[in-house]
Specification:
The chain is 46% helix and 14% strand. The chain has 300 residues and is an alpha/beta fold. It has one domain: Alpha-Beta Barrel (TIM Barrel), CATH 3.20.20.
């Protein structure tokens, strides 16, 4: 079954008793644990390590793997002095995820922020963002992804720009995930975008699924965001929280929520209406396996 059909089935089956799509967990923090900087340049510098991480996730029973291509767009690469070529690093990311994926597992082309700001807060125009997202999406599509996931975006306008770039040139499904700073006052990003605004505008722009990942929320707090998003859209909702709220310990950001507590938090997201779930920063194959076990128990 192609990914578009699988996402449509999530809508048709309703919240109760339907299939849940399980995504993988963090790659960046897993690379960090192995002594590597958590950047996609490892697709070229240490491909065997990236492949090992993705194979561990694939073996946990997830339904989709994301490519290790977060922020590997031209603007981010050039402004952050990442010494890679856009085409090379994105093609390698798809190749590694495809190698790791088992039968029936989807590969999602991962797209994220440019790391810059649109006018009037920054110096970039929407057309510049659009062009850089379109370039990355074209490479990912040509390399053979089953769909796109636009994630860890703090500005709704940037997310819409990326969504439009994907939708204008491809028929592949697009999942859009926003990073929220708080679940209170209607849930807001650091740019002040509310959950309601995000859900309405992303749905109107054609997102095939939408949701939340990363940010400053633990899984239970993300469940609140899920419920707010669900009120405003009929498309499937994604929840990919971190392994607890980030904490600074000796100048290092840490996430210390264990797999069982994480799975309990994911259960709250499911109860709030999420139909796609996975993990973000600090999550490991053990966290995803705990969620897979939870989903298997729910089927009995």
């Amino acid at each position: 079954m192609n990914l578009s059909k699988a996402l449509q089935n999530l809508v048709l089956s309703g919240v109760e008793g339907g299939k849940i799509i399980l995504l993988d967990g963090a790659i960046g923090t897993e690379l960090d644990k192995r002594g590597l900087m958590g950047r996609a340049s490892n697709n070229l510098d240490s491909p065997e390590i990236v492949l090992q991480i993705q194979r561990e996730y694939a073996q946990c029973g997830c339904d989709a793997l994301t490519t290790n291509t977060l922020t590997m767009n031209r603007i981010f690469i050039e402004t952050h002095n990442v010494n890679v070529f856009v085409r090379d690093v994105n093609k390698a990311g798809v190749k590694l995820a495809r190698q790791a994926a088992g039968v029936g597992q989807y590969v999602l082309g991962d797209i994220s922020s440019t790391g810059q700001m649109l006018e009037p807060y920054g110096t970039y125009k929407e057309q510049q963002f659009y062009d850089t997202f379109k370039e990355q999406a074209e490479i990912l599509a040509e390399a053979g992804v089953d769909g796109f996931i636009i994630e860890t975006v703090f500005d709704l306008h940037e997310a819409l720009c990326a969504l439009r770039a994907c939708k204008d040139i491809f028929s592949l499904p697009v999942i859009v995930s926003i990073a929220f700073a708080t679940e209170t006052k209607g849930a807001r990003t650091i740019m002040g975008n509310t959950a309601s605004e995000c859900a309405k505008q992303l749905t109107d722009a054609g997102a095939d699924a939408l949701g939340a990942n990363c940010g400053d929320l633990d899984p239970a707090q993300m469940a609140v965001v899920v419920s707010l998003l669900k009120k405003e859209t009929n498309v499937p909702i994604l929840a990919q929280p971190n392994a607890g709220r980030p904490r600074l310990v000796e100048d290092k950001t840490t996430f210390d929520m264990g797999p069982e507590a994480f799975a309990a938090g994911i259960n709250k997201c499911l109860q709030a209406g999420a139909r796609l779930v996975g993990g973000c920063c600090g999550t490991t194959p053990a966290h995803i396996r705990a969620v897979a076990d939870l989903l298997n128990r729910k089927k009995r």
